[in-house]
Amino acid sequence: MPTEKMTRPKEIIEFCLKPLGLDTSSAAYELAYARLEHVIKTYQKEILREKKPITVDFSQMRTITINEDAHGHD
């Protein structure tokens, strides 16, 4: 987990998608990235409108292990 707080959508999205090990040039990755970027920017716009800017702090978030074998992805 990073020790500093993230504020930029690109940082947040890349951090969240990195554990999946996806091909960053694939259409699926690009679509997921675009959707996440839209959501984050929309939320940030609303937060700023309310004059309550926030950052995302992943340091307090529990880590999870993705068990691909459980889903048949050997």
Give the helices and strands as they follow along the chain.
HH
Mean pLDDT: 78
Low-pLDDT regions: none
Query: Termini distance?
Result: 26 Å
| Number of distinct beta strands | 0
Task: Assess the beta-strand content as a share of residues.
Answer: under 5%
Helix-and-strand structural type: mainly alpha
- Provide a count of the helices: 2
> What is the rounded Rg?
15 Å
Biggest sheet details? none
Shape: flat
Estimate the helix proportion, in percent: 40-55%
In terms of topology, how is this protein built?
Blueprint: H1 9-17, H2 27-49
Helix pairs in contact: 1-2
In short, what is this structure?
The protein is mainly α.
How would you portray this structure in words?
The protein is built from two helices and no strands. The chain has helices spanning 9-17, 27-49. The longest helix is centred in the middle third of the chain and has 23 residues, at 27-49. The model has no long low-confidence stretch (mean pLDDT 78).
